[in-house]
Structures are given as structure tokens and as C-alpha cells.
Amino acid sequence: MSRRSPTKAKVSRRRPADPSDRGPSAATIQRQLSRAFAEAWQSFSSGGTLLKKPRIAGIEFHVATSNYLIQVTYAQPHRIQVSRRFTHDLSAEFRSNWRMLRSSCLTDATAPVAARLWPEVGESIVQLSTSFVVFHELFHVLNGHTAYAMVRSKGKPRQLAFGEAAQKVAREKKGKAPPSAAETKRMLEAYYLELEADDTALQWMMQGVPLSPALVRLVELVSGQVAARDIAALDNGWGRVLAFRAMIAALVVTVRLLERQRGDETRTPALTHPYPMARLFAGAFTVMEQFADITRAENGGDGAKIVRLSADEAEDLDTFLRMIARPIVSAPWAARDSTAADDGFEVLGPLVVTEIKNIILGRNPETEPVSQLLRIQRLRKAMTKRLARHRCMGPVIGSTPPPAN
Of 62, 108, 309, 315, which sits with the fewest C-beta atoms within 10 Å of its C-beta? Predict the structure, then answer.
């Protein structure tokens, strides 16, 4: 059954607004990451979803001694290591865009309604952002990435990092020879692992775990009814729209943080430079599939996914692009440095809606990140085979978007 454009509901009760209205502090981000890890690992450990249970020691916060934000160690017991710089950077990202997030997520709400809803919407975005980061690292383990990487590194204890610097993306500096064909292949393979971890994390957040406390309160505020178990199961209505907007907002905040880790030498188009923006396009497509409840997909000859849409699904996707994605990705996000707009989010972010339409309609992509994303996804068939014996779960629930042209 197609989900039609929802209508707004009356707010049933008031909750005091955050008096600071400035966004989360670094200490809040750290607490949320710790909470997200504890809840996520408990759900996997007790849920009967694991074919084999890896040993994970926990999540650690410390001053980084190398250029990374978050990473997970290859060897067991695995450790998720968080740079304190990451907690400060994510806090700064939220605070510089806090008012914009409020206006874009609640763009169609009256001022009084927005004032009542924003505490829950804002807290939901922060909870989803930190959960996304934690689930990403956990799925590096559960999807077999760390075990596969351990084999590739011949048993040397190394890390998979949530960021480009650790994937050697910044190695092509001025005056140095470009990577060899073998190095390029390894780089694209490493980036495939990042995309699969992103995608599976997003899927699990929408259909594998209960709603966060803030999302429960939000849905009950706008509907007056008890919320569904997870985001994907939410009934049509304003609560569903706001929940999916919060998902997209959390994704964009994280991608923007990654974009700023790129050096100037990697801002120009090149086959060997997968863009952080590619992660936004892929992630947005994953969220869109859940919103439209698309479950039918075919594998192309090169392993990429092909989605054939029914008329109802096409209508739902149009609703997603118009009501969910556009208000967030087209908003005036704050530029944090002089190079931020060169070839990053400020230029490409608003093109997310256009590029998703191009993909759905079988048109050629207009941006280099999506062209690269399609090339990376051609590794899917081979990588699925290589990772099979290392998986800790059954078939990976995440899709591997976008569909092939």
C-alpha cells in the first residue's frame, strides 16, 4: 500500500525547551556514544542474530596519536577507539548548524509547534548521529570486515578507521606519483567496506532496533499514540516524516564532518579519490528505500543492485525527495573553513535530490562522487564472495545502493 503525503497533527502536550538552544556539548556527544555502544552491543549479544559472537572489549576515548576520528581494531578483542577531537568536532558541527537544523526539520510547522517539538527533534538527531557512528564500527566487525582485513594484513594488529585519512585517500600529494593499479584497487576495496558498513548501520537503525527515547516522545507528541517499535514501522503521519528527516539530518552532519578531513589535494575529481559525498548519496538512497518500503531488488551482472519501481513506490520516492531530503540537504549549512565550498558539501549537497532522480530514471550521473559510487558498487559481487566466510551474521540486511544504470 502506498504511503500518501501526511498531514500535520496537533501537538498533545508540551515539554520544556532546552534553555541553551545551542546544540550538544562534547561531553554530551561522548555520553551518547557510550550509551549507543552499550545498547547496540547488548541488542546483538542477546538477540540471537549472531552466527558467531566476536569479542569486543568496548569503546575507548582518548587523545589521538594519529590522524583518525573513530576506528575499530582488527584483532580480537576488538576495541572502538574514539578521538576526543571527534567529540569536539561533532559538537561544533551541531552547534554551528543547530538553528538551521531546527528551521529545516520543522520547516512546515508553526512557530509555537516548532518550539514544542524541537527539543525532541534535536535530541533525536544527536542520538541518531552517534548511533550511526557506533553501528558503523560494529558492522565492520559483524560484516566480517575486520577479519578479512586481518587476513589481508597477514595478522598484523591494525585498524579500520571512520574517515578517509586511514584509507590513504590523501596520499596523492603534489609532486608524487599517483597510486599504482594495485593500490587503486585496494583503496576502492577499502572504500567499499566503508559504504557497506554505512549502509548496514542505517538499515539496522531503521528496522533492527527500537526507537530512541527522544523519537518515542516525539511520535507520541504529534500523534497522541504509542510509537511503533522502529522507524521503518512508523505509521503514516507527521511523526514518520520528522523521524526520517532526523535520519537524513544525522547522516548529513556526519558526512560534513568527514568532508572537512579531506586535504586540498584531494578535492579535485580523480578515480582514486572516493568522495565523502559518495557516502551521502549512498546513505540517502538507503533511507529512501526504507521510507518507500522497497523490498524488491535484482542483482545486475556486475553485482550492483537494480531496483524496478511500481507506480506506488515511485510516488512514495517522490514524497521522500520532496518532503524529507530536500528540506535538509538544500538548507544553508554553515561553512566551517575557506575551502569548504570548493568541491564539497556546499556545492554538491543540494544535488542529492537531482542525482537520486537521475539514478531512479536510469540517467547518467551529473557529479563525480556518484560516478565513483557506481564504480565502487561494481565490486559488490566479488566482495560479497570474499567476505562470506568472515561474516558474523546471516545475509547483510543492508542494501548496497544506488541501483545500477
Answer: 62
